[in-house]
Design a protein that fits this description.
About 50% of the residues lie in helices and about 10% in strands. It is α/β, with parallel strands linked by helices. A six-stranded parallel sheet has the order 7-6-5-8-9-10. It has a four-stranded antiparallel sheet with strand order 2-3-1-4. β2 and β3 form a beta hairpin. The chain is elongated.
């Protein structure tokens, strides 16, 4: 097994990079096809969600595989390789299996424990199967990941560790209130009719919204989702479908809007949102005022004069009680050369220097010397003074709440600055979830993942030697058949019963001789580091490599249900 995964996620890259690297459906298909066409890879699959892009492949060379997969990700995402590389992570063989199983259990999600990732893994496998880029390894891997994820959710309380991204986003919009109390009686607009939008609509319906309007580029899909919501027995929500052209009008009537589409551009601009709020309230929407903050390292000018021989320009330093020209505040913002001159001046103790209000001892000189060394490496030293606290300007209660779950974003980030609007997007969700509590069940899920990784590795290693064992037994059967034919030529008088007895006896002898070594070699091959036993078996019995490969290919075309799994 040579499984390799190269990817980036909310844990390794800022949202701005993830947003630019997002792949649409066509780009994902082209990426896996180009990966399989590349020399190091024989299988490929892409797992792309709103907060991760991962390329899985079965490769024959690690370093060449990493280079090729990284290059392909950069080419198809449109983000330069130099910019993308610092945010990429690489997992190989057992670590790659561990990573996917952790992802399937929700341990690597933005909201720990969310189960939506299972559907996305299932979709990724289905796409790879349709494109015939998933062979034995990726089929086994992704199907086992789905089973591990389901086991984690059924055997533990991982669901309590976090909610779906939709629920978590609605909690952020509710700003401390219970989602049910906040949502009750509101009108909701859901933009998009895919899996995430459908989940959002169902969550809003269960939360108690009064009406849901579904907008989608394909009206049939919007109508189907609206019909499902209306026919649900447990909510009683009113639902209707509208074309995307009606979004601007529906936005003026909505209290909350959730958007998750596959659009490459903005679905809701700041201007469109502002217009919707203005039409609803009858008042113009302004941007929230940001408090003015002085640049770090800048001090207000004063009338203080220069001290004898001091290279420090005191005209840029406040003449306040307790200020020391040898202290830290004095050197804030200096470049390295000036700092070195100032340190030498302090060390030499130039005669005539007036004593500052706060005595500058030897520790000041040491501090400035250290700061000079830091400045030589880092450039300029920033001021370490704590800024004066600025009173926050209260914002009015929002009349429109927006939840943007798309990657790249559907809603203009400038909407954050509009008064009367609250926007929660992937970036703000990432910040909010960073300090989310972890449930005790997470440790149990981690143990499940570790056990499943070990079992998967053992199964794959055992499967790796199976073609060699089959080839050995085939060779033995051919030897038996040849010797029986030779015996018939030498003893033509044997009747059918005698010939059958001799044939059966020879076969039993061969089977008994091969049974113990083939069973044992499978056991040894399943253990870590057991990959070499297949090579040893081929060498000892002089098995033809092409024969073994042919057996492997013949066994990799169908799964246990007889369905086509793509080329092995």
């Amino acid at each position: 097994m040579s499984l390799l995964v190269v990817g980036l996620s909310h844990r390794s890259a800022p949202v701005s990079v993830l947003e630019r690297a997002a792949l649409n459906e066509d780009a994902r298909a082209k990426l896996v096809q180009d990966t399989v066409a590349a020399e190091p890879a024989t299988e490929a699959g892409v797992l792309a969600t709103c907060n991760r892009i991962e390329l899985y492949a079965d490769v024959d060379k690690f370093h060449a595989g990493v280079a090729e997969l990284s290059t392909l990700l950069a080419q198809h995402s449109g983000v330069g390789l130099d910019e993308l590389t610092p945010h990429l992570y690489v997992h190989y063989e057992d670590r790659a299996v561990h990573h996917l199983f952790s992802v399937a259990c929700g341990l690597d999600s933005m909201v720990v424990g969310e189960g939506q990732i299972l559907g996305q893994i299932k979709d990724s496998l289905a796409r790879a199967q349709e494109l015939h880029t998933a062979g034995r390894l990726l089929n086994d891997l992704f199907q086992q990941a789905l089973r591990v994820g389901k086991r984690a959710h059924s055997e533990t309380g991982i669901d309590r560790a976090g909610q779906s991204l939709v629920t978590f986003g609605l909690e952020q919009l509710a700003a401390g209130r219970a989602v049910e109390a906040w949502a009750k009686g509101r009108r909701a607009l859901v933009i998009g009719a895919g899996s995430m939008s459908s989940l959002a609509a169902a969550t809003l319906a269960r939360a108690g919204v009064e009406e849901i309007v579904v907008a989608n580029r394909t009206l049939d899909r919007a109508e189907r989702l609206a019909r499902i919501l209306t026919e649900g027995d447990d909510t009683g929500v009113r639902a209707r479908a509208v074309p995307m052209a009606d979004v601007a009008v529906e936005l003026t009537r909505a209290d909350v809007a959730v958007s998750c589409t596959g659009a490459t551009g903005l679905v809701l601009t700041a201007e469109a949102v502002a217009n919707a709020v203005e039409q609803r309230t009858g008042r113009p929407v302004a941007e929230s005022a940001e408090p003015a903050v002085e640049p770090s390292g800048t001090l207000p000018p004063t009338g203080a004069g220069a001290e004898d021989g001091c290279p420090l320009d005191l005209s840029a330093v406040p003449a306040q009680s307790g200020f020391s020209v040898a202290g830290e505040a004095a050197v804030a913002g200096m470049d390295a050369a000036t700092l070195e001159q100032h340190a030498a001046w302090v060390d030499n103790g130039v005669p005539g220097r007036r004593e500052p209000a706060r005595r500058a001892g030897d520790s000041d000189a040491e501090l400035i010397t250290a700061l000079a060394a830091t400045a030589a490496t880092a450039g300029r030293v920033r001021e370490h003074r704590r800024p004066e606290p600025v009173a926050e300007v209260p914002r009015p209660a929002p009349v429109l709440c927006l939840l943007d779950l798309a990657m790249p974003r559907d809603v203009d980030a400038a909407v954050h600055r509009l008064t009367g609007v609250r926007l929660v997007d992937i970036e703000s969700l990432a910040e909010a979830s960073a300090d989310a509590p972890m449930a005790a069940d997470v440790d149990q899920v981690r143990r499940i993942v570790s056990d499943e990784v070990a079992a998967f590795g053992a199964a794959q290693r055992a499967a790796h030697i199976t073609p060699t064992v089959v080839a050995l037994r085939t060779m033995a059967a051919d030897v038996v058949a040849g010797e029986i034919a030779r015996l018939e030529g030498r003893l033509p008088g044997l009747d059918e019963r005698q010939r059958g007895e001799i044939t059966q006896t020879v076969r039993r002898v061969v089977d008994k001789l091969l049974h113990a070594p083939t069973v044992r070699v499978k056991q040894l091959a399943a253990e870590p580091g057991g990959a070499g036993y297949a090579d040893a078996l081929r060498t000892l019995f002089d098995l033809d490599q092409e024969t073994v490969a042919a057996v492997s290919r013949a066994g990799g075309g169908t799964d246990k249900n007889g369905k086509n799994r793509g080329p092995a």
